[in-house]
TrEMBL record:
<comment type="pathway">
    <text>Cofactor biosynthesis; ubiquinone biosynthesis.</text>
</comment>
<keyword id="KW-0503">Monooxygenase</keyword>
<dbReference type="InterPro" id="IPR018168">
    <property type="entry name" value="Ubi_Hdrlase_CS"/>
</dbReference>
<dbReference type="InterPro" id="IPR010971">
    <property type="entry name" value="UbiH/COQ6"/>
</dbReference>
<dbReference type="InterPro" id="IPR051205">
    <property type="entry name" value="UbiH/COQ6_monooxygenase"/>
</dbReference>
<comment type="similarity">
    <text>Belongs to the UbiH/COQ6 family.</text>
</comment>
<keyword id="KW-0560">Oxidoreductase</keyword>
<dbReference type="InterPro" id="IPR002938">
    <property type="entry name" value="FAD-bd"/>
</dbReference>
<protein>
    <submittedName>
        <fullName>2-octaprenyl-6-methoxyphenyl hydroxylase</fullName>
    </submittedName>
</protein>
<dbReference type="GO" id="GO:0006744">
    <property type="term" value="P:ubiquinone biosynthetic process"/>
</dbReference>
<dbReference type="GO" id="GO:0008681">
    <property type="term" value="F:2-octaprenyl-6-methoxyphenol hydroxylase activity"/>
</dbReference>
<dbReference type="Pfam" id="PF01494">
    <property type="entry name" value="FAD_binding_3"/>
</dbReference>
<keyword id="KW-0274">FAD</keyword>
<dbReference type="InterPro" id="IPR036188">
    <property type="entry name" value="FAD/NAD-bd_sf"/>
</dbReference>
<dbReference type="GO" id="GO:0071949">
    <property type="term" value="F:FAD binding"/>
</dbReference>
<dbReference type="InterPro" id="IPR011295">
    <property type="entry name" value="UbiH"/>
</dbReference>
<feature type="domain" description="FAD-binding">
    <location>
        <begin position="5"/>
        <end position="339"/>
    </location>
</feature>
């Protein structure tokens, strides 16, 4: 590790690691401090969960030079099917209707971690990845910033022009900078696991709204499906610990028979669902990306996709800068990210509230909406743009895959 770097990234999870690669691609050197080694079971970002990547995110990752590696370990989404339990209305979107080969892809978080880390080794000239290394303190002046990092039980200091906080939704350093974060507790938890079904998934992703909350079944490699099932907080533990056959039966009841019987259920886990939005993305020479900036309900699978868009805009702005912590550059980042953040948070929160309520008039509205989305061309086109991650002004990296 050196004494000083142009950019220091706190947190080497999905957002921090992707940013390091994006900067390296533009010839900007950085250090990444990550509290957990990739191989540790407790690594909180690259765990057993899965992430649905939009077409725009696949473009961003392709521009980072990892398209083939991602394609090898992910599964394409070719159709999205949205429905509601107990109603006949549904919306369906197919890749061919949008003139694309796939609408997105699904990848296990730990596989994404492996791909990003393998790519680091080809960028050793630009990326110093230090883990386990926990950033404890941060101070800044007009000319630069300093981090105090705990490495092997020793406190070390590093100087930098720009500190990027990619340290997750709780972001202790965001709190140290006195940046407030607006929190919405949905009082629900996501029960997640991978599973196998009697019938092949044929690259279909399903979003189904049930009386208790929405569930998503996403196509995974080796003919598995990844489940994200929102449940009221007080029921989540019960769903994690109930016997496998009982869980499979409950899920078959909620999901229906589109994939036949559930034949195998993998390890189940639950995650409390809280939405947060930092009041600002910039303080002095510090910027926020990924979950440190905002975290979302996973109903629309948008959290990391939004974080990747933070990263692509930030890396584009930094590529022309003389001082990476320059006030004007960082303020431009803040203003360029505003509408995408607000729109995505609003859509996600509205979906979470609209589709987690069993009140009859709302149920009727939902059903009409689903039908409209399927048959009204303009509604379908908006649905397609949102699903593929193109429903906002895009960065250069997201627009094309080369
Ligand atoms: C159930 C569920 C399903 C989801 N599905 C999707 C989906 O389908 N599509 C999608 O786009 N998004 C999805 N998401 C959201 C996605 O998982 C997050 O947006 C993403 O993990 C955020 O990554 P991050 O790197 O910003 O934060 P994190 O993953 O929280 O990583 C933060 C990293 O910072 C490190 N760190 C923290 N503090 C320090 C410190 N002081 N020093 C050094 N390191 C530190 C941590 O160890 C960690 O590795 C889902 C989320 C959940 C809960």
């Amino acid at each position: 590790m050196k004494d000083s770097y142009p950019v220091a990234i706190v947190g080497g999870g999905m957002a921090g690691a992707s940013l390091a690669l994006a900067l390296a691609k533009r010839g900007i050197a950085c250090v990444v401090f990550e509290a957990f080694a990739l191989s540790e079971q407790s690594q909180p970002s690259f765990d057993d969960r899965t992430v649905a990547l939009s077409k725009a995110s696949l473009n961003i990752l392709a521009n980072l030079g990892i398209a083939e590696e991602i394609a090898r370990v992910s599964e394409a989404i070719k159709t999205i099917h949205v429905s509601e339990q107990g109603h006949i209305g549904f919306a369906r979107l197919a890749a061919e209707e949008c003139d694309v080969e796939q609408l997105g892809a699904v990848i296990e978080n730990w596989q994404l971690g492996k791909v990003l880390h393998q790519a680091f080794s080809k960028q050793a000239e630009y990326i110093d990845y230090v883990a386990p290394a926990k950033v404890l303190e941060l101070s800044q002046s007009h000319d630069g910033a300093e981090l105090t990092v705990e490495i092997d039980g020793q406190a070390e200091t590093v100087e930098t022009q720009l500190v990027v906080l990619a340290d997750g939704a709780r972001s202790p350093l965001r709190q140290k900078l006195h940046i407030d974060s607006e929190q919405r507790d949905f009082e629900t938890a996501a029960v997640v696991c991978n599973l196998s079904t009697q019938l092949p998934h044929r690259n279909q992703a399903f979003e189904r709204f049930t009386a208790d909350g929405p569930l998503a079944l996403l196509p995974l490699s080796r003919q598995r499906m990844a489940l994200v099932w929102s449940k009221p907080q007080h029921q989540a533990e019960h769903y994690v610990s109930m016997p496998e056959n009982e869980f499979a039966k409950e899920l078959e009841h909620a999901f229906g028979a589109r994939l036949g019987r559930i034949t195998k259920v993998g390890k189940r886990q639950s995650f409390p669902l809280v939405q947060s939005k930092a009041e600002t993305l910039v303080r002095g020479r510090c910027v926020l990306v990924g979950n440190a900036a905002q975290s979302l309900h996973p109903i629309a699978g948008q959290g990391f996709n939004l974080g990747l868009r933070d990263i692509s805009v930030l890396s584009e702005l930094l590529s022309g800068a003389e001082d990476y912590g320059d006030f004007h550059v960082l303020n431009q980042y803040q203003s360029l990210r505003q509408s995408d953040r607000e729109q995505t948070l609003w859509v996600t929160e509205s979906l979470a509230r609209l589709f987690s309520n069993d009140w009859a008039p709302l149920s009727l509205t939902r059903n009409l909406l689903l039908k409209a989305m399927d048959i009204v061309p303009s509604a379908k086109s908006i649905f397609a743009q949102q699903a593929m991650g193109f429903g906002f002004k895009n960065s250069e990296l997201a627009a094309n895959d080369e």
